[in-house]
Design a protein that fits this description.
By secondary structure, this protein is α/β, with parallel strands linked by helices. The chain has 14 helices and 16 strands. The chain binds 2-phosphoglycolic acid (PGA) and zinc ion.
């Protein structure tokens, strides 16, 4: 039984306050987790409140429903209590940041009681033995860096890597190769929020650099490395058009553009190529590019089963980004993954641009057999997850 829930403000990787939760249990179990935070947040995400408000509200409404009432190991009960305490559709009362921190901390306390690693507690004995391929952010801009690319993320996708560790190291090498290429071209580059290079180059040059960086590392490593994108197109979309600096594209032009990029660069993955309200355009693009490329909905689906169901019904995308803080609890994230899997949609468990050292998403990806995880490439709050994946892979064989 949960005996205490402690909430506090800690720093995230952008230097902003975020919510951390500790959950303690009667039998001595302990779990601690923190909420991440987005910058290019989707319109339909659960509501993140200012951390002090979220903490005050969760202390008043949620903690009394958990302490002495619910077992930390029973995730569905914990998360149902959070929903009941909140009473809204979108966690606007206690904050999705409080909710997700408590939900994940409870899961860790539940694992601690069992003496099991978190992925084992969440995934159980019938978990598969696949490991997620990490998609690594190498070059980016958009809402994550000023004066850089229009496209938010250029992601290395080491699809031929023989192990998680090899994939993790390959992504770091692509990141380093991109730095070399930028240097060779005399282009200085700062870093964006997720540790990707944020050079002042146009998107076309970023494609060129990515192609070369990936090729150098693939040659060296001897396995296939592709790349992909998070276009975060809702951020580009305004008044019916997609804006790339001074240039604009109509919806049809955007679909053509993305379909051409997929062919020209053999892209493994394209996230949010279209606006978050345009299921129809998503469906048209998905139809055109076929199954070889993942067309992933982040802002489109926001880890929400009803939005995903609408996408399934309309044939929009073939992949879903899973961000627990978009929906507020691990149960909701699990349900989204389950619905996706049932309908052949691939799940990509993901970090946010504002992160902490929390490693829950690494365990969530392994527990649910997610084929991909998006959690950066370098930089401490990103490597926390990647290094945890390496440890889990070693532990789980
Ligand atoms: P965000 O970006 O965390 O700023 O929303 C990540 C993404 O769009 O996938
Ligand atoms: Zn995204």
């Amino acid at each position: 039984l949960i005996t205490a829930v402690r909430l506090r403000r800690i720093l995230d990787s952008r230097g902003n306050p975020t919510v951390e939760a500790d959950v303690l249990t009667e039998s001595g179990g302990f779990g601690r987790a923190a909420a991440p935070s987005g910058a290019s947040t989707g319109e339909y995400e659960a509501i993140e409140l200012p951390p002090s408000e979220a903490i005050a509200s969760a202390r008043e409404h949620a903690v009394p429903r958990l302490v002495g009432e619910v077992h930390a190991g029973n995730q569905r009960e914990v998360d149902a209590a959070l929903h009941a305490a909140d009473g809204s559709e979108d966690f606007s009362e206690i904050g999705a940041n409080s909710a997700v921190a408590i939900s994940m901390a409870a899961a860790k306390a539940g694992a601690d009681v069992l003496g099991a690693p978190l992925y084992q507690h969440l995934g159980g004995a019938f978990r598969g033995d696949n490991f997620p391929i990490p998609l690594g952010n190498v070059i980016g801009g958009g809402e994550h860096a000023k004066d850089a690319t229009n496209i938010q993320e250029f992601l290395a996708a080491p699809v031929g890597a023989p192990s998680v560790a090899e994939a993790v190291f390959a992504n770091a090498e692509v990141h380093a190769a991109a730095a070399d290429i930028l240097d060779e071209r005399g282009v200085p580059a700062a870093k964006g929020d997720e540790g990707a290079w944020a050079p002042a180059v146009d998107d076309a040059e970023a494609f060129d650099i990515m192609e070369e960086a990936v090729e150098r590392v693939a040659d060296d490593r001897g396995f296939e490395i592709k790349f992909g994108l998070d276009m975060a197109a809702a951020e580009l979309y305004e008044d019916g058009e997609y804006h790339y600096g001074d240039e604009t594209k109509s919806v049809d032009e955007q679909i053509d553009y993305v379909a051409e990029l997929v062919t020209d660069y053999d892209l493994a993955y394209v996230e949010d190529p279209l606006d978050e309200n345009d299921y129809e355009a998503f469906a048209e693009l998905t139809d055109r590019v076929g199954d070889q490329t993942l067309i992933c909905g982040d802002d489109l689906f926001v880890t929400n089963v009803s939005r995903l169901q609408e996408g399934i019904d309309k044939g929009a995308g073939n992949s879903i980004l899973i961000k627990p803080n978009q929906i507020g609890t691990l149960t909701d994230a699990f349900d989204a993954i389950e619905l996706a899997t049932e309908h052949g949609y691939k799940s990509v468990v993901s970090h946010r641009s504002g992160e902490t050292e929390d490693t829950t998403i690494a365990h969530l990806a392994v527990a649910t057999d997610a084929p991909f995880i998006k959690t950066g490439t370098v930089q401490g709050e990103r490597t926390a997850k990647l290094n945890e994946l390496i440890r889990i892979a070693e532990d789980a064989v």
